[in-house]
Structure formats: structure tokens, C-alpha cells
Automatic annotation (TrEMBL):
GO (cellular component) term, any one: membrane
GO molecular function: 4 iron, 4 sulfur cluster binding; metal ion binding; molybdopterin cofactor binding; oxidoreductase activity
Names of required cofactors: [4Fe-4S] cluster; Mo-bis(molybdopterin guanine dinucleotide)
Protein origin, superkingdom: Bacteria
Protein name listed in UniProt: Nitrate reductase
GO BP of this protein: cellular respiration; nitrate assimilation
Pfam hit, one: Molybdopterin
Record domain 4Fe-4S Mo/W bis-MGD-type: where: 10-66
Natural source organism: gamma proteobacterium HTCC2207
PANTHER family: NADPH-FE(3+) OXIDOREDUCTASE SUBUNIT ALPHA (PTHR43105:SF9), RESPIRATORY NITRATE REDUCTASE (PTHR43105)
Sections of the chain in a coiled coil: none
UniProt family annotation: Belongs to the prokaryotic molybdopterin-containing oxidoreductase family. NasA/NapA/NarB subfamily.
Length: 897
């Protein structure tokens, strides 16, 4: 199997998707230095040819527009030589004046392993600061801490094939249908093949992932540890423990069982909000099913007690010996494409390198290997504390790479202020304008996906190659290269003479094996001699990869041997705690939850560039139960203010029966670049887990209020617009970089003609207005082209649909502009509505009418409309629409009639 095939003017290169931790293989078709098309790599074991919507739209995210193309210092473009010299000089000055600990690095699970390794080596090994943390702190750190407490190592026992073999899959705190879609489809296929397989979803919300659920436990926010403690006690009462496994391979069982048994059934029901019957069903299924996997993600990790929750889960697997066996285990699913790689190089502040903690011995080992006497001797600050140290001035220089903390850190406004006041903020990013690049003193253009080369490790420990496909935009360079240049300019020449990512990788592999007598599970020593050619053609492989296991290791702990001093796995006695309700329940009566939507990735710097990925959801929203909405006098589509003691945002209300009364859900994706006020992380207090340092991002007390919006408008413009006079706005790029589309709320008096003449190059106008409805329509144009088109109305539904708006700027004949002011021809148009299937552009409206006329399964819908037949990301929504329509009163009435 080769990674590249060439024809005369085009070639296909195999690489890996840069989004989620599934780590799908991608076949990329390149022509004339451009990415023409992507498809799933049929030979990659993670996805076997499938891609989800985000992966399938990768080609749309390429191109130079919006990219950071040149280094700059204090806003002035400079050469690379100058930028490198400045970074090196500033870091050396801070080190000399204040000591190495005045320097911090804040990295990302989206860097390649090679980038991450060089950053960690420079910071911890040569500058001598332990302050190297990463956005994985907000993501995986509780899972890491849970594994380390239980197994003595940060090691994921299971693999994806186990998911196909398990007969009970417990998805807890995961909306995999949207966040790990290809894996979810794999699970769906396995369930279809094996009708005995059962799926339990534990989530306060009824999510798209509940489509597969035989049982959904709508747990009270933060109460998971109660459920799993309850399960442990139940296993004991039902005499279903694997006593042999417990005796042979574990320690600490008695104490864990004792704390788990301390809670009464009544209290269990009260704390979890789950009925006795539902709990009993789940517990009974777990008892009955040897092949059980608990699959967990952010609903577990992002909590002030996340590590305890992880261990409460692991306890149940140890107690039944369901670990290290086919189809069984506690399976933490990683979010980012290379969260695992970061963990491997030691890119968390409490790790040194290559799965080594900070001990005197390890510092000596690493010092010898790196040939440096400057290696930091103690763990550094974790993300929340690290930004606090930036705020209080003890950190003078911070280098942020591959992450957007002004959007993603809890208490995000405080992080923003801290960076604005910091003496030296260096930001390496691919994108010119982000909320974080806005705070930078020095900007370094990073090569992005498709331009850089290296490795990533997915959720099942599988290392895959990401390969360069096209030339880097402008002067962008790979992060490892930038780091190595700075290291050399700082005077650390010897350690950083890398010529290629392969040089970095083999050194990383050597370190993993160096003085490793089996006490460190992470060992890829067998890859430490790879030649350039072998590295280039490296096939996906799961670590450990050692001389004993040159083909890698699919499953860990099969022999019941762990990496604790005793070789036994540890039970941890867990006393569950609910999230602290520190603030007034009267002022903030609601529980706020946050997370992801199907088609966007994080702060949208990449997925926001693909117009098709905005067809499913194009505005930031707050989802709520109809009762919660009614209590605040809100209707679907109204503008709402969500406030917490920490901050305030304004977003669109979305009625969602899957959200329980008195709870709210807000997506994490929008930033100040594309929305008026939607950074949800500003609402969360930085309450951290004492073991892992991971902040609570799934719970805050909150209040909800309606914002009056007298008038709504939708605009398209060739150029980006000044939005400062609007009550609220969301912007997005139009397809093919035609311009921008805005959805705004304004006061009734807003003078659009005045506005348009101020902000655009229009010299002539076609206009219509009806004052009674605040109905104003305007097309502004110049000699060359239409510059702006806008429609405003008191009633939002009276505005033209987005698909029609998106196309307006393509109209070139001014004589038609008057006609266009009357809006889309409704007799012809699909009124648009939400696009459910992005691959075949099938709207909710079409799907509903197909169901009403008899399509009663997702297969039927697929046959009729094609929806769901490509990437399958929308299948959960298709089945939910089928259920919704079939239970609607009109439908039933029609059936009966
Ligand atoms: N489309 C898309 N996919 C992504 C990403 C993305 O940005 N967009 N990001 C990637 C990354 S980095 C990550 S970390 C993963 C995250 O993947 P997930 O963890 O699946 O995603 P989230 O939406 O953050 O949260 C999952 C669920 O946790 C639930 N939850 C909240 N509180 C609780 C609780 O107390 N208990 C339980 N049991 N559940 C709770 C939420 O309601 C939510 O449905 O996604 C990855 N995949
Ligand atoms: N309230 C709340 N907050 C959350 C979460 C939540 O669920 N709720 N989830 C948390 C989680 S799990 C995560 S992972 C974080 C994610 O949050 P962030 O990491 O802040 O979000 P991203 O948008 O992924 O930021 C990545 C940045 O790196 C840039 N970039 C992309 N590729 C490269 C590259 O190769 N090199 C360099 N130098 N830059 C690159 C992108 O343009 C982008 O600006 O958010 C966390 N914050
Ligand atoms: S599931 Fe989607 S986002 Fe995740 S790696 Fe695969 S294609 Fe990329
Ligand atoms: Mo994440």
C-alpha cells in the first residue's frame, strides 16, 4: 500500500483529517499545487473509507484568503529573519531579567507530534521553564489523570474494533453522532449487524446520539459519578463482581466499594434525577453483558470532579474484569486530532517528556538524552493558573500556538485582558484575524493542514502520517521549523539541528525508549531508526511499537499487568460531588451547559471558511425547553441574553425538546470575529478539578432574558461591514469568496440608506420601503457591480431565505435590481430552511414532506432524496424527523382520516 499515486498532471496523497480524534485517513487529490478533492482513505483502519461532513469539506477550507501570510512585530510586517531574531531576543531578555519561569508556552492538541516535541524540548529542556500547557487541559486532562491514577500510565486500553465487538455500549458525556461521526456510524453499523448489542446514552440532553440509544438516562448535570458508584454497589449486591480479577490484578477495592455503597437508593435517584426503574435497567444490562464498553468524553472530563468521574467509571470495569479484553473497557475518546500526541511528548505542564513525570530521576534521564543542564526541575502551571500568572504579571512572555484561548478558556474576558496587558504575546496561527491574534505583539504565520507534514495519534493510540499536499500559503512555515529557528537564535544550536519532521520524529521515538525498562508504556523505540523514505511511507500503527511488538499493539492490559509499583490496577474510592452552586439560585435559576454542533470545529477558523458547513446551523443560539422559553417570554428565533455571574452573551433562542426545563445549551463556536456577543466561555467561572486542573465547562448557574429586537435584517456585501451600530449580528463568508452575509437586529429607526452610503462603495440604489412594517429593501451598486443588498423587516420570517440571499451578488444587470427587491419567487424556490443533509443539500422542509407522503425510514428517505447516503452525519436527525412527523397530530389525523 503506497501513500501517493501520480498521473501526469495530478496525484493522490494519503493523509489524515485534522479535526477530531477519530483520526480518519484521507485521500487527497492534488492538481497544480491545489487540493481538488478529498475522499475517505479506504485502507485506513480508523475509517475504512468514510468521512463525515467536516472531513468531506476539507478542500473548501483551503486558500489564501484570511490567512496569516507574513510575520509581523507590533503590527508591522517583517521578514522571517527579523521575526525570529525578535522572538529569540525577547525570550532571552525575559529569561535573563526574570528567570526562565517568566516564560510560558500554551500549545494545542492540533499541533503535530513533531511540532509539540520541539516546543516541549525548547521550553522545558533549554529555556528551563515548566510552564508548558495546552488546550488539552480543557479537554483531556481529567481522562489522563483518571487513567494514571488507575493504571499508573496515561494509556487508553481499547481500540475501535472493540466498539464493533461490544454488546453494551455506554456513551456518557459524549455526543459522538456529531463529534466523532465516523466512529458513531461504525457503531451504528455494528448495532445493525448484531441486534443483541445495546446502547445506553447518559447525557442531560437528548442529543443526536440518542438515535441509537436503547436507553437514555437524562442525568442531572454533573451527577455521573453517582450513577457509576451506584453501579459498583449494585454489582456487589447482585454478586456479579469478578472476584478473581479483583484479587489477582487490582488493589484498593474494599475502600472503593465502601464509599460507593454509602449512598441510599433514594439519594441516588434524587441526585441523578433518574428513576429507580431506569437505573435498574441500566445496571441489569451491565450485569448481563460481559462485553461492555463505557465510552466517555467532555460531559465527564469537563468538570470540577472530572477525574473522579473517570475513576468511578474505571472502577466498574476493574470490578468486573472488563478491561484488556475484546469488546470491553473504559474508553476515553479524545477530541482533538493529536491530543494523544501531545500527551506522548509530555506537552502538559505536569509532565516532563515521553510519559515521564517530574522526578529527580526522570529529570536526569531527560537531561542526559537532550544533553542539557537547563531542564526544568518542577511541574509548571496548568492552563487556568498559567493565565492567572499572565494576569498578575509573573509571566512576562507567552507563546501561544495552535489554539485560541480568548475564545476557549473559561473566564475568557479575563484571559483576553491578561494577554492585552502582557509585555510579550507571541501567537503562531494560520489565520490573520482571531480573537487571540488580536492580542499579539508578534504574529508568526503557521503552515496549516495540507501544507505541513508529520504525525498525529488518534483516540485508539494509532499514529498516522499527515502529509503536505500543497505549498504553504504566503510565507507560512511549519511550527517545528519556527521553533527550531528560534531555539538556534537563542543560542541552543546543538539540540535543534533538524532538517525535516522525520529527524524530530526519530528523536522522539528514541527518547520514548531511552532508559525505558518497561516502566513507561509509551514506547515507540522500534520506529527510532526510520529513514526518510520509511517515515514518509509510515503506515498507521498503534503504540507501543517495540522490538517485541514491531507491528504495534492493538489492546493494552490483556495480561492484567499494570504500570503501578505493584503491577496492580488501582481502585479509587470516589465520593461524588455535584457542581458547586456557588451563586444565588434566585438570580441565576438555570443550569448552563455548553458543547459542540455538527458542522463546526471549535472557534470556526477553518470550518467557518466552508460555506456549506454553515447551512446546517448559521447562528449562535441558546437551546432551551419550551417551558423555559415561555417563562422568559421567548419564542423560537427571538434574541436572548444569557448571563452568569461571569459574563453576558446575546444569542438566538432555539426551542429544543431535548433540553430539560431549566437547562440551557449554548454552542462554543462563535467568536468576536463573526458574532456580536457569543463567546460562551466568557460565562464560565474557572472552577478546576483539583487533580487534573481541568476547568468546569459544562455547568454554570445562569439567567435568561429576552432582548427586544424591533427589526431584523439580512444583508450581503462585497466587503466586510462595520457592525458597531447593530443591536446584534452574525456574519459569515459567502461561497467562493464573493463577500459576506450578515444577519442582524437593529432599532426601528435604523437608516439603512445612510448606513449603506457610509460603508460601501455604492453610488446608485434601488429601494423600497413600507414604514408600517419597518420593511426596507435596498440594493446599492457601483459602475462595476452590486455592492450591497439588504432586506429588513419587523418580522424575521418575512426576510428572504439565505440560499437566495447568498446568490444575490452574482446579479450583474442593474435593470433587474428593482425586480429583485420583491424577493425570491416563492412558487419556484425551496424556501430553504435548515439544511439537514449537507452532502446532497436536502433541507428539513423536503425531508418532512417526504415523510408526510410515506417515507418511513432513513433508507426510504435516502432512496427518495439521497439524504444520508454519503457521509451519514445526518442520519440521527433524519430518524428524529421521522419520529417527530409520525407523532405529530396533523400526521396522525391524516392517517386516521
Ligand atoms: N463537530 C465537532 N466535532 C468535534 C469538535 C468540534 O468542535 N465540532 N471538537 C472535538 C473535540 S476537541 C472534543 S473535546 C470532542 C468533544 O466531544 P463531546 O464530548 O461528544 O462533545 P460536547 O458537545 O462538548 O459534549 C458532549 C455532551 O456532554 C453532555 N453533558 C453536559 N454535562 C453533562 C453531564 O454532567 N453528564 C453527562 N453524562 N453529559 C453531560 C452535553 O450535553 C453534550 O451533549 O469533540 C471533537 N469533535
Ligand atoms: N465553555 C466551553 N469551553 C470550551 C469547551 C467546551 O466544551 N465548553 N471545550 C474545550 C475544548 S475540549 C477544547 S479542545 C478547546 C478548543 O479551543 P481552541 O483550541 O482555542 O480552538 P481552535 O479553534 O481549535 O483553535 C485552534 C487555533 O489554531 C489555529 N491553527 C490550526 N492549525 C494550526 C497549525 O498547524 N499551527 C498553528 N500554529 N495554528 C494552527 C487555528 O486557526 C485556531 O486559531 O475549547 C475548550 N473550551
Ligand atoms: S470523524 Fe470527521 S472530523 Fe473526525 S477525523 Fe473523521 S472525517 Fe475528520
Ligand atoms: Mo477538546
Amino acid at each position: 500500500m503506497s501513500h501517493a499515486t501520480e498521473t501526469r498532471d495530478s496525484c493522490t496523497v494519503k493523509t489524515t483529517c485534522p479535526y477530531c480524534g477519530v483520526g480518519c485517513g484521507v485521500s487527497a487529490e492534488i492538481k497544480n499545487d491545489q487540493l481538488i478533492a478529498v475522499s475517505g482513505d479506504t485502507e485506513h483502519p480508523a475509517n475504512l473509507g468514510k468521512l463525515c461532513v467536516k472531513g468531506a469539506a476539507l478542500d473548501q477550507t483551503m486558500g489564501n484568503h484570511g490567512r496569516l501570510l507574513q510575520p509581523s512585530i507590533e503590527g508591522h510586517p517583517v521578514s522571517w529573519d527579523r521575526a525570529i531574531e525578535e522572538v529569540a531576543c525577547r525570550l532571552n531578555q525575559v529569561r535573563e531579567k526574570y528567570g526562565p519561569e517568566a516564560i510560558a508556552f500554551y500549545l494545542s492538541g492540533q499541533l503535530l507530534t513533531e511540532d509539540y516535541y520541539v516546543a516541549n524540548k525548547l521550553a522545558k529542556g533549554f529555556i528551563g521553564t515548566g510552564h508548558v500547557d495546552t488546550n488539552s487541559r480543557l479537554c483531556m486532562s481529567s481522562a489522563v489523570a483518571g487513567y494514571k491514577r488507575a493504571f499508573g500510565a496515561d494509556a487508553v486500553p481499547c481500540n475501535y474494533e472493540d466498539l464493533e465487538h461490544c454488546e453494551l455500549l455506554v456513551l456518557t458525556g459524549s455526543n459522538a453522532a456529531w463529534t466523532h461521526p465516523v466512529l458513531y456510524r461504525r457503531i451504528a453499523a455494528a448495532k445493525q449487524k448484531n441486534p443483541a448489542m445495546r446502547v445506553v446514552v447518559i447525557d442531560p440532553r437528548r442529543t443526536a446520539s440518542c438515535d441509537l440509544a436503547d436507553l437514555h438516562l437524562a442525568v442531572a448535570p454533573g451527577a455521573d459519578a453517582f450513577i457509576f458508584n451506584g453501579l459498583l454497589a449494585f454489582l456487589d449486591r447482585a454478586d456479579q463482581l469478578d472476584r478473581h480479577y479483583i484479587e489477582q490484578h487490582t488493589e484498593g477495592f474494599a475502600a472503593a466499594l465502601e464509599t460507593a455503597s454509602a449512598i441510599s437508593q433514594a439519594e441516588l435517584e434524587q441526585q441523578t434525577g433518574i428513576s429507580r426503574e431506569e437505573l435498574a435497567t441500566f445496571y441489569q444490562w451491565f450485569v448481563e453483558t460481559e462485553k461492555s464498553i463505557t465510552f466517555y468524553s467532555m460531559g465527564i472530563n469537563q468538570s470540577a470532579t472530572g477525574t473522579d468521574k473517570c475513576n468511578a467509571i474505571i472502577n466498574c470495569h476493574l470490578a468486573t474484569g472488563r478491561i484488556g479484553k475484546l469488546g470491553a473497557g473504559p474508553f476515553s475518546i479524545t477530541g482533538q486530532p493529536n491530543a494523544m500526541g501531545g500527551r506522548e511528548v509530555g506537552g502538559l505542564a505536569n509532565m516532563l517528556a515521553a510519559h515521564m513525570d517530574y522526578t529527580t530521576e526522570n529529570v536526569a534521564t531527560v537531561s542526559a538524552f537532550w544533553n542539557s543542564d537547563k531542564v526544568s526541575k518542577k511541574a509548571g502551571l496548568k492552563a487556568v493558573d498559567l493565565f492567572d500568572a499572565v494576569a498578575d504579571g509573573s509571566i512576562k512572555a507567552i507563546w501561544i500556538m495552535g489554539t485560541n484561548p480568548v475564545v476557549s478558556m473559561p473566564n475568557a474576558d479575563r484571559v483576553k485582558a491578561a494577554l492585552e496587558h502582557c509585555e510579550t504575546v507571541i501567537v503562531s496561527d494560520c489565520i490573520a484575524e482571531t480573537d487571540t491574534t488580536a492580542t499579539a505583539n508578534i504574529l508568526l504565520p503557521a503552515a496549516g493542514w495540507g501544507e505541513k507534514s508529520g504525525t498525529v495519534t488518534n483516540s485508539e493510540r494509532r499514529i498516522s502520517r499527515q502529509r503536505a499536499l500543497v505549498s504553504a500559503a504566503g510565507e507560512a512555515r511549519a511550527d517545528w521549523w519556527i521553533l527550531a529557528q528560534v531555539a538556534k537564535a537563542m543560542g541552543f544550536s546543538d539540540g535543534f539541528n533538524y532538517q525535516s519532521p522525520r529527524d524530530v520524529f526519530v528523536e522522539h521515538a528514541q527518547l520514548s525508549d531511552y532508559q525505558n525498562q518497561g516502566q513507561r508504556l509509551f514506547n515507540i523505540g522500534a520506529l527510532s531508526q526510520l529513514s526518510e523514505t520509511h517515515y514518509d511511507s509510515l503506515q498507521p500503527i498503534q503504540w507501543p511499537v517495540t522490538t517485541n511488538r514491531p507491528q504495534g499493539t492493538t489492546r493494552l492490559f490483556e495480561d492484567g499487568q499494570f504500570v503501578t509499583p505493584s503491577g496492580r490496577a488501582r481502585f479509587i474510592a470516589i465520593t461524588p460531588r455535584l457542581p458547586a452552586k456557588r451563586k444565588s439560585q434566585r438570580r441565576y435559576p438555570l443550569a448552563l451547559n455548553s458543547g459542540r454542533i455538527r458542522d463546526q470545529w471549535h472557534t470556526m477558523t477553518r470550518t467557518g471558511r466552508a460555506a456549506s458547513l454553515l447551512d446546517h446551523t448559521d447562528q449562535p443560539f441558546v437551546a432551551m425547553h419550551p417551558d423555559t422559553a415561555a417563562a422568559a417570554d421567548l419564542q423560537n428565533g427571538d434574541l436572548a441574553e444569557v448571563s452568569t455571574p461571569q459574563g453576558v452573551i446575546q444569542v438566538i433562542s432555539l426551542i429544543d425538546l431535548g433540553v430539560k426545563p431549566e437547562q440551557l445549551f449554548v454552542p462554543i463556536h462563535w467568536s468576536n470575529q463573526n458574532a456580536h456577543s457569543a463567546r460562551v466561555a466568557t460565562l464560565f467561572e474557572a472552577i478546576i478539578d483539583p487533580v487534573s486542573g481541568q476547568p468546569e465547562s459544562k455547568f454554570s448557574r445562569a439567567a435568561l432574558k429576552k432582548i427586544e429586537s424591533p427589526c431584523w435584517a439580512t444583508l450581503v456585501s462585497r466587503t466586510a461591514l462595520d457592525c458597531s451600530e447593530f443591536i446584534n449580528w452574525t456574519s459569515a463568508a459567502l461561497p467562493r469568496q464573493l463577500g459576506f452575509i450578515y444577519q442582524v437586529a437593529v432599532s426601528a429607526e435604523f437608516n439603512w440608506q445612510h448606513y449603506a452610503s457610509k460603508v460601501t462603495g455604492a453610488t446608485a440604489y434601488a429601494q423600497f420601503s413600507d414604514a408600517a412594517n419597518f420593511d426596507q429593501r435596498l440594493i446599492g451598486y457601483s459602475d462595476q457591480q452590486m455592492e450591497i443588498a439588504l432586506f429588513s423587516h419587523r418580522q424575521k420570517p418575512s426576510l428572504p431565505n439565505k440560499a437566495w440571499m447568498q446568490d444575490l451578488l452574482n446579479n450583474r444587470a442593474p435593470e433587474n435590481y428593482w425586480r429583485l427587491l420583491s424577493g425570491p419567487d416563492l412558487s419556484l424556490a425551496d424556501s430553504g430552511g435548515k439544511l439537514i443533509c449537507s452532502c446532497f443539500k436536502v433541507s428539513e422542509e423536503h425531508i418532512i414532506s417526504a415523510i408526510e407522503t410515506g417515507a418511513d425510514s432513513t433508507e426510504q428517505l435516502g432512496k427518495q432524496l439521497q439524504c444520508g447516503t454519503n457521509c451519514g452525519s445526518c442520519i440521527p436527525e433524519l430518524s428524529s424527523l421521522i419520529k417527530q412527523v409520525q407523532t405529530s397530530s396533523q400526521f396522525l389525523a391524516k392517517q386516521i382520516g
